Amino acid sequence: MSEGLNAWQLIASGDATLISIVRLSLTITLAAVAVAAVVGLPLGALLALTRFPGRSALVVLVNGFMGLPPVVVGLTVYLLLSRSGPLGAFGLLFTPAAMVIAQALLVLPIIAALTRQTIEDLWREYRDELTAMGVGPPGRVATLLWDSRFSLITAMLAGFGRAAAEVGTVMIVGGNIEGFTRTMTTTIALETSKGDLPLAMGLGAILIGLILAINAAAWGLRVWSEQRVA
Amino acid sequence: MMRAALTDLPLILDRVSLSAGATTMLDRLNLAITPGAPTLVLGPNGAGKTSLLRVCMGLAAPSAGTVSWGGRTDRGLGRRAMLLQKPVMLRRSVAANVAYGLAQAGCPRHRRAARTEELLDRVGLLGLAARPARRLSGGEQQRVALARALAREPEILLLDEPTASLDPAATRHVEEIILMASQSGAKIVMASHDLGQVRRLAGDVVFLVRGRLCEHASAGDFFDRPASAEAAVFIHGELVL
Ligand SMILES: Nc1ncnc2c1ncn2[C@@H]1O[C@H](COP(=O)(O)OP(=O)(O)OP(=O)(O)O)[C@@H](O)[C@H]1O
Ligand SMILES: [Mg+2]
Fold it and tell me: Which domains does chain B have, with CATH numbers?
């Protein structure tokens, strides 16, 4: 397929295999971040704004889960989704859906923990002012989320970066099936072991470019937001 | 509207104490705030002026005693507004900050833009409407916060040193706004360190020392015949300990 071509030629020629792999990776990771955000933003806000017994333990747990080993997440999701597992009936193992679930679990603590910290700090600053303006709980959450939107987008970008770069979970729950669940990272792992270095290097270059682009976007957003709303 | 029928006055503090840990900020205060000319709250730094205003606003619950607004003891907001000693600007434009206050006060969406302009014009900041509010100077922020408080069309307007970081012209301007609000029926309760300002604005004076109500008298009596030794030395610009 790519014998004799070097990595740059592969990228420049828009190799079909390469493009489909990149597209699948991006789709899965974006979906995972979206799912994690839908759960993580409200969860983080809830943790920031409520007081209940065991809250501190939960905060520590969520913070700690930011560093979850991807292979352990992969293993857990594998056990849940495998034929004999509790969710085995859905037949999701070795599908892109399973990979989205696994990556979402990986990203969720990052988004929830950073949201909690951001919202809690902002609430400390806004509390008297919002209370004096008669803002009720739903309005508070909306205001705090909106006013910390740039920090929260940065948190989501951080989650995206982590999910896009990891290989352990998607390898385990996706199975690295060619043309179906093969992502950039799993392809790199496989092709390197097979000795097809150009495709591995091409994908590696694209992945690094992607991560750099995300970080540039986060940086740009920060600078821009500081000028806009400080 | 149901709310309009309720009044927050008189505001009555009955043996109110406020403490945090070992610190007593307010010590068994009895006070009645009734309609009429502005009530000015005086006292040295740390006397408890901010604490008193926060309790009056309902931002802090007393650790002992009761506060009631028009006979009701629930802290749910009626028509009260407060300008904090250190106002916090939302991360939005100046106009959006005022519009936010209007929205919270129940001003219908289609009238907000015009009302925002009106309020910003009143505090002399119309030219800064589009600027990010957090980039304004301290004095400008204080005036945005005043506009935001006026947006509530409050029945009781609590002001915590509203002119502390204003230049002389802006101070006079804000005093005029306060007097206007007072004349149109709002009850002003205001902390100040500026004795000239107190003479210009006060109907009555609440004088605090170390969390205790030291004196509550009409402005004339307070300045001409202070009843306490503390008040006498305070008026003469000496340190009250
Ligand atoms: N959250 C708190 N915890 C502990 N002590 C506090 C707290 N808030 C205020 N205090 C203390 O309570 C006292 C009264 O504070 P307060 O802010 O009401 O004073 P103030 O009269 O407004 O002073 P200033 O003129 O400096 O604004 C001060 O000694 C202050 O240090
Ligand atoms: Mg104060």
Answer: 11-87+154-235 (3.40.50.300)
